[in-house]
Amino acid sequence: MANEDKNLIEILEENYPIDIGKFINYVHAPQCGAIATFSGTTRDTFEGKTVLELRYEAYVPMAIRCIESICSSARSLWNLNSIAVAHRLGPVPVGETSVFIAISAVHRADALDACKFVIDEIKASVPIWKKEIYANGEVWKENSEFLERRLELGKGMQDQGCGKKIEVETNDRKGCCGMKVKVNDGVADSCTSK
Fold it and tell me: Is 123 annotated as a binding residue?
């Protein structure tokens, strides 16, 4: 079935908004009873700070290979027809879409579960980096999915790279919003110390 896989993966250069209709039309098929979508948009605040925009950078060839692999994994777990993934690079102002996923399947459960899997895996493993630009500063952000995976691989390690301590707070909610991650910058950064 690998030769029949219908995937559309695009990493869009700066100042190219995602054409959501294009990706929905790509996955639309008469044999499918469901199209599940996810649209990640820039919000205007984060922890009380005013967000002006997000900025994304990527290692594009590797990002595309990683997303292709994620699509293959999704297909091995669910009965899917088509998958479309788009991610913007560069500045993404408040209210605009930075990542969009559309997945079609005969049944809604497959499309919905696969859509959640794809966005979680993109955030955990694809080399796309996000900087939040605030009214009073900016910061590079690590996704909680990435940090969770890193913590699983390094159980028992207190120092998680560059001399920074990482605390993970969990709650009873399931899914992508079930934990908060804090990086303690009070420790000297061993990557930049001379």
Answer: yes
Binding residue per annotation — 107?
yes
The domain made up of 7-156 is a member of CATH 3.40.50.800 = no
Kindly tell me the burial class for residue 53, based on how many C-beta atoms sit within 10 Å of its own C-beta (0-12, 13-18, 19 or more). Answer: middle
Domain ranges of the chain: 7-156
Asked if residue 34 lies in contact with residue 105, where contact means CB atoms within 8 angstroms, the answer is yes
pLDDT, tens digit (0-9, with 9 covering 90-100), for 69-122: 999 999 999 999 999 999 999 999 999 999 999 999 999 999 999 999 999 999
Q: Is 6 annotated as a binding residue?
A: no
* Integer Cα distance of 97 and 38 in angstroms: 10
Q: For 35-61, how does the pLDDT look when each residue is reduced to its tens digit (9 = 90+)?
A: 999 999 999 999 899 999 999 999 999
pTM over 0.85: no
